[in-house]
Each structure stands twice: as C-alpha cells, then as structure tokens.
Write a structure and sequence with these properties.
996 residues, mainly beta, 22-stranded antiparallel barrel, 5-stranded mixed β-sheet, 10 helices, 63 strands
C-alpha cells in the first residue's frame, strides 16, 4: 500500500515538476538601465529570487505563471513568465514621486520637504523636440511660465515667470549645474537630465538680487551606475508656413490705389504699362521645405569611483526665408571622481560653436506692391515704383539673394566648472566650486554693389544709391567668473530633520567689444565679394580715411553671503527660511548692500491620523513670504553718468567743445525690490492617480529704477510700483489599465493680473511706440483713440463732436469723445488694449499601448490684445494693402470699420482701436507618435531601447489676428507688437533613438 501511495503521488507531481523550468530576464528602469535588488516571486511555485547588479535574474517557474516583481521606489509589476528571455520595465512609484529629489539653489532636497512652488521637467520632455533652445519646448507645460516663441532660427524665446515685474528686466536667471547664466542657448537639449522652474519667494530668495524674475535650473546628465550606456538619436524635419497674412494682389492693388489717388485729387497712376506684374512677395522669399536636422550622441559610464558622461550634438536649421541657416555643434563633459568616502572632485564643461543666421524678415514682402515683377527682361532686379514705396522698400529679393551670404556671424561659447566636496564630522559637507563662462561673438559683413532697373527712367541704377562697397567687422567677448563656498549641515534628531546651508558667492562680469568699418576708395576698384577680403585693413581696396571704429567695455562684480534652513518634524510640519546679502559694485557705496529673505511653512495633512481613512494620499498646505531683488541691466553704474557733448565756446579763434554730464548724478540708488507671497495646496488622491495643485501668488515690485525726464533735467531714481497677482492650477491623472495599456492626462492654467500702481510722480507717464505705462493700468498698455465707426455723411460729421485732430470728412474714422466735453482731442486717448493675457493654459495627454505611444500637447492664451503694426502704411509712403481694405468705405452704409482710401490726411492713421486685434489663441503645440522596440541583440550589440517617432510641432493654431502668428515678445514696456516679421512654422519631423 505504501509503495502504491508514493507511486500515485509521483504520478501526480511529476508533470508539475517537469513543467517548471528556468525563466530568465532583465529588469530595467524607464531609462533602460538595469535595476539591482528587485525581488521576483513566482506566485504559483512560491519560488523567489532577486536581480543582480545589472538587473538580470533567473527563477524556476512554469511558463505562463504569474511573476511579481517589486522594488522600493517602483510600481509593483505582475507579468506572465515566458520561456524566451524577458525584459521588464518598472515605473517609478507615484508615491515616490512626492519624495523625488529636486534641484534647488545651491543644493537639492526632497520635494516633500519644501514649502515653495518648484516644477520639475524631465530632460526627455525637451530632448526629442525640434527646438534649438530647450526652453522653447516648455511652452504650455508649466503653470506660471510664459514662453513666447519665435520661428526665427536661433532667436531666444521671450520668457516671463508670473508676469512682468519690472520696466527694465524680466528675464529669469538660468543656473546650469550651479553656474549663473543669462540664457541656455548653448545647451544641447539631449544633454539635459532635468529642468526645475522656481517661482515662489521660498525658493527664490537664496538668489537675492537675481531672484525676482524667477529661476530656471538646468542639470545636465551625469554618469550612472552600471555598464556603459550609449545613446544615439537623430531627427529630420520639414518646415511649412500656415496662416499667411492676406494682402492685395495686383488687380486689387490697382483698384485700391487708383481710387485712393482720385479721392486725394490726383489722376490714376500713369505707369501701369511699366509695372504690370502680379507678384506674391511672400512666396518669392519663402524657403519652401526648410529642413531641420538634429543628431546627438551621448555616452555614460560609472564605477564605484568615477562617473563620466559625454555628449555631442549637431544641429542644422534652415529658416523659412531663403538663405537663412543656423548651425550648432555642441559638446558636454561631466566627470566626477570619488577619492574616498569623504572626498570627491568633479569637472563639467559645455561648449558650442555656432554659425548664426542673418536676421531677415517678411516685413518688406508684406509692404511691397505686387504690380512689380522681381526681375526685368534682362534678369536685373526691378526697383519698386518711386511713388509706391520705392524710396522706403527695396526689392524684397535683394537682401535675401544678394546680402545673406555677405554676412558672417559666429559664436564660440565655453561654460565650465570644477568643484571639490568634503564630508566633515559626519554631518557636515563643505563644497568649493569655481566656474567660468566665455562667450565670443565675432563677425564680418560686406556691402556689395547691386544693379536695379528703374522702369520710370528706363535705366539701370545702383541699389539704394550705393556706389561704393564697404566692409565691417566686430568682436565681442563676455567673460563671467563665479566662486562658491558652501557648508551644509544635515542632521536628524529623532522625529526632527534639519538641513542648514551657509555660503559665500562672488560673481564677476566683463565685456569688451570693438567694431569698425571701411569704405572702398573713391574711383578705386570695388572690394572683392570674397570673404578673404572682408577685413578693416583690406589693402589696396579700402580707403583708410573712411575707416571708423567703436568700442564698448564694462565690468562689474557682486559678492554675496547666504543662509538657508530646511526643517521638518515627522515629515508633517515643515519650515523653510532663506537669507542673502548682496553687495554690488554698480551701486553707490552707501546703498550697495541689500538684504533679501524669505520664510515658508507647510503642513502635510495627509500624514495626520484623522486623514488615514479619507482616501487622500497626500495633502500639503503651503505658504511663503519674502523679498527678492531685480538687477537693472540696461545701464551699468547708473549712479555714475557719462559725459556728452554740450555747448561749445570760442577762445580767440579756437572753437572748444564743452562736455556735460549725460544726466544728473543720484547717489542713493538701489536695486528694485519685489515683495512676494503665495499660498496654496498640493493634493494626491485616488491611490496617487490624481494630483492637483492650486496656488495664489502676489508679487509687488517697489522702488523701480526709473530714468526720469523732468523739465530740463534727466536723472535716475527709485520710484514706482508694479503688482502682479493671480492663481495657478495644475492637475494630472495617471492610470495603468493593464501591462500593455496606460494613459495620462494633465493640464495647467494661470491667471494674470498686472497693474502699475505708480510710475514716478502723479500723472507721470512713459510712452514707447503705441504703448503707455501709467498708474492704474497694465504695464505697456496700448494707448490711443477708440473708433466708434465711420462718418457716413456730412450730416453725420456735423451732428458729431468736433475733432481737432486733423482734417476729416465722410468715410473717415469717428473717434469717441471719451471725456464727453464735445470735442475730440488728445484728451480723448485712453487704454485700448492689454498685451498681458487674462490667463494662459496648457493641456497634455499620452496613451501607451503595447509598443506604441501617442502624446498630444495643446497650449494657448486668452484675453490679451495684439497691436497690428503692418499693412497700415504711413503718411509719407505707399505700401501694399491688406486684403481687408477691399471692404473700405465708398459711400453711405458701405462700411462702418474700414475707412475710405486717402493719404491726403493722417487722420485715419492715428493710434486707435483699428490697430488692435484679439491675441487669444489655442494651438496644437505638439503631436508625437512613437513605436518602442523591445530590447534585442544584433551583431553582438545589445540594444536596451529603441524608438522610432513621428513628430508634428505647431500643427494648427486657432487665432483671431491677421498676422502670421499672435505671439510677439518684446521689451517689458512694449510687447505683443505684431510687426509682421516672422511666422511660427509647422515642423513635421521623423526621428530615431537607440540606447545600447
């Protein structure tokens, strides 16, 4: 019987035993790197193992048996066992995302331990986008961050964080691996590990006089533990213009121009027999199918004692105007050597060599009359008619075809740092860092002789009256040097945790710039159209008597002491405090030292016992208050005016020039101060799938550094106040439906309320172009007359308030009598538009199914106005017409918006609501469809990951303005001006990325 039982059990168990086999595989993180120490459990067989240093594992299990893979900090993964080698990718736990390490000023910290508003963007977000500047890819991604992009290759975006805080300087501070910078155009997007956006006083006060406009921290890639990892990615894109402005063709132009001349008492134009073309000038200068090529190679390797990362990149981008090219070669090196458990050294270097494009625009193409053909029968460029803009607008093809290749502009930039870090007395760390930034820009240009055909005189004449060639040359070098000495104390006392930082920083800046030009000798041979001759000492062609030179140079320094404390109790009660004292060489001795500080507090309610069964995973209430600084950059040493030429005096027979101060000296100037506070909460719920943040912010800038003209005196003073306030909301939902299917949805919205509380003295105003900055209104408000309609008849004119603005009659604008005094005069001007939007927003969604992924980004603004500064012509020049002018007033009842055609009076050209357009828009910012290959081996090379993607940027824009794009940056007091210059193109690209 016993033998029978044993035999029966063996018969039952043998198939199960024989079905078990060795299952092999590898566990990776989202970057494709092996995860050591992950635990794998076969749920049926109840066997387990863990991964080795490279993430490899082997376990006895049946085919199809469920394997449970777990690792601290990652989402638990359950998959069916396969007999073929398995490759499993684990995602970071959502709860761990709350404990993610974020970079802050002079260090890093867990996001949970901070009281401020810091947003972290992973480097992969910007790595595969067709943008030369990484910040351009952040548009619509971060609440409170305004990014106004330009389609011009190499042009820096207009960046503002939480509004326009100053009349002078609105750019944020960039900090790349601890190095202060004014821009990050030298950084290759593929070399970026993460970007942090700092917005609140708690995180910004540590930057003192540079913190008021916000800070963007960039961390480049470092070597990671494990085997050497090599990544190569490349993409090629094609640009196209959509939404071209509608301008008159030749037939419409002739109709409108002749009507205008008749209205002004002149005969119809008499030279149509000479000018009988029908030219679309936009089409003529457009570079159809402009190409963007981007290739990058990165190598990362690390051992216990050395972490190395190398990056190389090449970018070639054509503009949508012909003969416009940007080329960039970049490199990045980061190496950290661990001497012992207590001592390490590191070095980092970023470099770039750029060939910068010529800055042409579509402005002349929009304004040039279409009745002129580009060339005459002999192939000579046609000159525009003298009476139709010929003196103001050259043939738009000439700058594009003949002058683009006669300008050479190069940039060489090297930014590097070395540092050492020593652990002392268990809880102390001392770090020393030295950094340098050298930016060299040099260029040469040549002005050639170009023939144009003047049809009116039937002669070939010099273009723009130019009879002599000339060359110019410039060289500008900017050098920055930075020193950091930082002592950090990090200690846990039971339930208490404290991190204290004390440091010293110095930052020195130098600029040297020289430029000059020389003309061809009169009667001599032209300077050759060959770059070998484009120098100031061009012998024997240059006339040394015409050689002129100029120079600019300045230097300044800031020294700072800084302190910060981060404290929390049980991870529930959090207090952050910062202090910085800046001393600037550019300010008077008695006022050059300024203090900046902040205090912040937060309460993590999610850890309280009464919240245990609430379904809320985390709920942090936070707030901070502080004072930040804004350093004025337009004028150096504003308290020390230069001299300028004054009245001359005669001594005997000698005329002696006199020199006077350019403006009155002021010896108590200081940097602008921004008082800022915020309050809000961060919520995660539904098992960490839903995250929602809401924040109210307020920033009030006081003691603005203002240049005042008062009577006969000019001087700088601290005066004025600007307030920015609003709400920020951001939310996201992430859900994994199965091992093959997951999706995420996120969005953000920011309200903006900008108000100038005071400028200088009551009634003092600042005008710049069509804008006025005055108390009680948004900064840079559009200012002019409100158009109520069109005078339809003389009876209408007689029954309306009398206008003193110029001659007018039926068909002209009817301006509103704003003050109701019965007369239309300059007192009836008012704010007619706000360039600052009421709110900005962004929306993103991504769907992942098996090996496919689809990501869509939308972004937009609402509530701002755009000033149309093209298609209006001027009193003294005749330009082409906007197509909308075909609906002009031609008699009673024919139009109540488009005025009659007339150049006899400038009445209809006064700044008015006629020039103001709705700037609201919504754009499909980016769409990417990708296919992710499984890891595989080929030719003895193991590919950890591979992706093929199709990307479309700026796919479609729903807008209301008549120009190429509703986006237009500018200065703090004159922005959102549409000069019709450059479109934001659609870029369709295909790319490939592989890691092995």
């Amino acid at each position: 019987m016993r033998n029978f039982i044993f035999g029966f059990l063996a018969l039952i168990l043998l198939p199960a035993y024989m079905s078990a086999q060795v299952i092999k595989g590898k566990v990776l993180d989202k970057e494709g790197l092996g995860i050591p120490g992950a635990i794998i459990i076969a749920l049926d067989s109840n066997t387990n193992t863990d991964t080795d240093f490279d993430g490899n594992f082997s376990i006895n299990a049946k085919s199809g048996e469920l394997l449970k893979i777990s690792m601290i900090g990652f989402e638990t993964l359950t998959v069916g066992a396969k007999t073929t080698p398995m490759v499993l990718t684990m995602q970071v736990s959502k709860s761990m995302q709350l404990d993610e390490i974020v970079v802050i000023g002079y260090g890093s910290a867990k996001k949970r331990d901070l009281t401020g508003s810091i947003v972290k963007i992973e480097g992969k977000t910007v790595a595969d986008k067709p943008n030369a500047n990484p910040v351009a890819s952040l548009q619509g991604k971060v609440a409170g961050l305004s990014v106004v992009n330009s389609g011009r290759p190499g042009q820096e975006p207009d960046i503002r964080i939480r509004g326009t805080v100053s009349r002078n300087q609105t750019k944020p501070l960039y900090v790349v691996d601890g190095i202060f910078s004014t821009d990050i155009s030298y950084i290759n997007s593929n070399d970026i590990e993460s970007i942090e956006i700092l917005k609140d006083p708690s995180s910004l006060a540590i930057f003192g006089v540079r913190g008021a406009n916000g800070v963007i921290l960039v961390s480049t890639k470092q070597g990671k533990a494990g085997k050497m990892s090599i990544n190569f990615n490349t993409s090629t894109g094609v640009k196209s213009i959509v939404g071209k402005p509608k301008v008159a063709n030749a037939a419409l132009f002739r109709e409108l121009y002749d009507e205008q001349r008749v209205n002004d008492g002149a005969a119809p134009y008499a030279y149509y027999n000479l000018f009988n073309g029908d030219t679309d000038w936009i089409n003529q200068i457009e570079n159809k199918g402009a190409i963007v090529q981007n290739s990058n190679l990165s190598i990362q390797s690390a051992t216990d004692n050395n972490k190395l990362s190398l990056g190389f990149g090449f970018l070639k981008e054509e503009g949508v105007i012909r003969n416009e090219n940007l080329q960039k070669i970049t490199f990045n090196v980061n190496d950290e050597i661990k001497v012992s458990d207590k001592l390490k050294f590191g070095i980092g270097l970023n470099g770039i060599k750029s060939k910068l494009p010529v800055g042409n625009s579509f402005g002349s193409a929009l304004n040039a009359t279409p009745i002129v053909s580009p060339y005459n029968a002999d192939g000579v460029y046609n000159q525009l008619p003298v009476q139709i803009g010929g003196a103001q607008i050259g043939n738009p093809l000439i700058p594009v075809n003949e002058e683009s290749d006669t300008k050479i502009n190069n940039q060489y930039r090297f930014v590097g740092n070395v540092y050492g870090e020593l652990k002392l007395l268990k809880d102390f760390t001392f770090r020393i860092g030295y950094s340098g930034d050298m930016d060299i820009r040099k260029g040469r240009s040549y002005v050639p002789l170009i023939d144009v055909f003047a049809a009116e005189s039937n002669q070939v004449t010099p273009y723009s009256g130019r009879t002599l060639t000339s060359v110019s040359q410039y060289n500008t070098t900017v050098q920055n040097f930075q020193q950091d000495y930082l002592l950090t104390y990090n200690k846990k006392f039971g339930d208490h945790s404290l991190t204290f930082l004390a440091g010293y920083n110095s930052f020195q800046e130098y600029l040297e710039s020289i430029s000059g030009s020389v003309n061809q000798k009169i009667g001599g041979e032209p300077i050759p159209n060959d770059s070998r001759w484009w120098y100031l000492n061009v012998f024997p062609y240059g006339d040394q008597a015409t050689r002129v030179s100029n120079s600019e140079q300045w230097e300044r320094a800031t020294t700072s002491t800084l302190f910060r404390a981060l404290y929390n109790y049980k991870g529930k009660y959090i207090v952050n405090g910062s202090f910085r004292r800046d001393s600037s060489s550019e300010l008077p001795k008695d006022t050059r030292d300024q203090n900046f500080w902040s205090i912040g507090a937060a309460w993590e309610l999610g850890k309280e016992k009464f919240m245990e069964d609430s379904g809320i995973n985390s709920l942090k209430i936070k707030g901070s208050y502080g004072e930040l600084g804004n350093q004025y950059n337009a004028v150096h040493y504003p308290y020390l005016p230069n001299y300028t030429t004054g009245a001359s005096a005669v001594f005997g027979s000698t005329l002696v020039p006199a020199f006077v101060l350019a403006y009155r000296n002021t010896d108590n100037l200081k940097w602008e101060t921004v008082t800022s506070y915020e309050g809000g909460f961060e919520l995660t719920t539904f098992k960490d799938r839903l995250r929602f943040d809401a924040t109210y912010y307020n920033k009030t800038t006081k003691d603005l550094l203002v240049f005042v003209t008062q009577g006969n005196e000019n001087f700088y003073t601290n005066a004025g106040e600007i307030e920015n306030k609003g709400f920020e909301f951001s939310t996201s939902w992430d859900e994994k439906i199965s091992d093959k299917f997951s999706y995420s949805i996120s969005g953000n919205l920011t309200t903006l309320n900008n108000r100038v509380n005071s400028v200088f003295e009551p009634g003092y105003e600042i005008f710049s172009g069509p804008t006025r900055t005055s108390a009680g209104n948004p900064i840079g408000s559009f200012y002019g007359y409100e158009v109520e309609g069109i005078y339809q008849s003389y009876a209408d004119v007689l029954s309306s308030p009398v206008s003193t603005l110029g001659s007018y009659g039926p068909g002209d604008f009817k301006y509103k009598d704003v003050n109701g005094d019965g007369t239309i005069n300059t007192d009836d001007r008012k704010v007619i538009g706000n360039p600052t939007p009421d709110f900005t927003y962004g929306f993103s969604t991504s769907v992942n199914y098996d090996k496919f992924s689809l990501a869509i980004d939308l972004q937009g603004v609402y509530g701002n106005e755009v000033w149309r500064n093209w298609g209006n012509g001027s009193t003294f020049a005749q330009f082409n017409y906007r197509e909308a002018r075909q609906d002009r007033w031609t008699g009673a009842g024919t139009s109540n918006w488009e005025p009659r055609l007339s150049e006899a009076s400038g009445y209809n050209k006064l700044n008015s609501t006629y020039n103001v357009e709705d700037g609201s828009y919504i754009r499909i910012r980016n769409v990417q469809l990708a296919y992710n290959f499984k890891p595989f081996s080929a030719q003895n090379i193991t590919f950890q990951s591979m992706k093929l993607f199709l990307n479309a940027q700026n796919l479609h824009t729903w807008k209301h303005n008549s120009g190429f794009t509703p986006e237009a940056g500018g200065s703090p007091i004159e922005f959102s001006i549409d000069n019709g210059g450059y479109p934001l193109p659609v870029i369709t690209s295909i790319g490939f990325s592989a890691t092995f």
